[in-house]
Amino acid sequence: MLEQFTFVGFLFLVALFLGLFMFGVPWLLRLRPRKSSSYKSDPYECGLRPHGEAWVQFKAQYYIFALVFLVFDVEAVFLFPWALAYHHLAFYAVLEGVIFILLLTAALIYVWRKGALEWM
Amino acid sequence: MTQLVLFVIFGAITLAAAIAVVTARNLFHAVLWLLLAFFGVAGLYVLLEAPFFAAAQLFIYMGAIGVLIIYALMLTRGVMRQQVPLVNDQWALVAVLAVALLAVLSWLFLQHTWPTVDQAVGPDSLRTLGEALVDPGRYGFPFEVASVLLVMALIGAVTIVRER
Amino acid sequence: MGTFDTSQLLAILPQILLVVLALIVLAADLGTPRGKKRSLGIVTAVGLLIVLIVTLAWPETTEPVFGGALRVDGVGKAFQAIFLLSGLLVALISMDFRPLRQDGAYYAMLLFSVLGMSLMAAAEDLVMLYVAIEIAGISAYVLVGYMREDALSAEAGVKYLLFGAFSSTVMVYGLSLLYGIAGGTGYGRVAAVLLQTPFQLAMVAFLLVLVGFGFKVAMVPMHFWGPDTYQGAPTPITAFISVASKAAGFAVLARALHFLFPALNNDWPALLVAISMVTITLGNLLAVPQRNIKRMLAYSSIAQAGYVLIGITAGGVAGITAVIFYLLVYAVTNIGAFSIVSMVASHIDSDDIQDYAALSRRSPALALAMMVALLSLAGVPPSGGFVGKLFLFAAGIKAGLVPLVVVAVLNVIVALYYYLNVVKVMYTVRSEHEEDAIAVPAPSRLVLVLSVTGVLLLGILAAPCYNVMSNWVTGWFS
Question: Domain count of chain C?
Fold first, then answer.
């Protein structure tokens, strides 16, 4: 069981290394512009200069998208084992999953028609 | 042996991150630590041979709930920047109570021999779970009710959040 | 994979109907123009009436259904009827509560909450119980904070949510302990294993679970959320939480004590006696100085929970029947009182007791109905509240809880003082607004009539009602 996760562990180590590497190399080599200016420390080198701060107040509307995402994420987790067992299920058991989905669809339609999913 | 080492590593990650959550002065940093704690728990699930729950933990907690909390913080920009005091004047009392509770619970748990399953988790465990979830004799009914719970949570949250 | 017996669906027909009703309300909401949403309250109330009739007409079963997840027995049915009745009355008074924005989602949340509670009353499985409690709880958080623009309502919602989430976390920790001990989630299995479990471990699990139940019931020391939440919530929802949510907590507590924790039968009564004494006394003493009627009724409802705990502690057919009878009386009475508070608040935009001055001259009918409700809450004969308290105290004495009953009786006198104080303000204090009558719209009039006749009928015809209920309860003890 655990052996199957060796690859996952390996990937995890690679990811960790890459992140540390990217931060580590400039720090080790003391890489910094010889002549520092405010332009050089901008996040983007071209285009308009950033205006204001990155930490702005979001619209409450965005929060709804995160919520809908969460609800359907949970739904997916519930339905995954059900889908996996599909071939071994009796008809009524499949129907149960369908009812599960239909109920959530009804909620989605309601929320949609209410205009809660409008962007802005 | 490997298992023990990995358990110590993931346990340490979880605990350290959890402590960082409650001691971080910046709320946003606290959330990031929380995500790390979630990750540690996912690792523990893998060690318990429950890969599905590990994946669910990553999906739901690190993915959806992490995003949700960060969005919530973004809604309250003022709070995010504030350096709020971490304790109030009752912290000593609460700390004593918490430690006492931990001591009592640990003592109780260590004394008890917990029932364990001898059988290893088979490769079909996820399918068995899927069957149990829709089996009316097992969790079929709570499963359907859970869908009602999700419906209710979705509609309720949208009702509360929606800008008027 | 088991086979599926469709007759199981019949046992949960009321719950299926509730879901369908909620979906109908939501669908109707989409097709209803903004100004006409008030009519959704009628749809909700009529639907709940149908479900109530179905629930009462359905024969109760003693066999568990869905692999032991639910057992819709007589006790469960009685509690379900109380929730449905509360939901019905609350839907009616919600239609006329002016600060409330009429919306389909509001009524749907109410229905979901009733659904969660009716599952709580019948759940005999830890997973089922938790899902049911969360459905009832989350919808209640939304309803409390529903008037988001109102700072008090928003604060009430947040407080209720935080306390609720905390207590539910503690409870689910307790539930996980029970699962860990027993290796299963059915009440029967857990109870059997608990008998062989060391006392301390079983007790710790019980205490953790009790935190969750105690929050619903609002018993000391899990009562702190009460007054602020009651004050800030939309008044119809205050009525709903103070009645239905509390009754649901008692339903779960009674079933858990009987079917889940028989191993602790010798230990929990002493604890509950102490909690009951403190709850009754604290609730009544803190109600005395209140100037806001919703806060006063909040503390009074904490005290009422203490009285009900007497019946829970006494147990047996007498105890549980007294609990059900009292909760039914309390539902009718308290929703009646809150419907008047709601109408007054819609008219004069105030919940201060002193603004009830000369209500007897402004609207004699309202003042009379309020007096009946308050006297029933206080336990003055011949109201249902009097008989209900009598049943509770009798069950307590029969079970040997004499000190507790003495404390409760003394408290009834304290309670009489603050209830009568409101009556005094309504009837003897003059006011400059005496000419300004308070309008009573048709749905609220219906609630008032139902409430007053209910209080009086339950007082006068107590014996037949009691017999019907005790027939439902005997299934647990035979």
Answer: 1
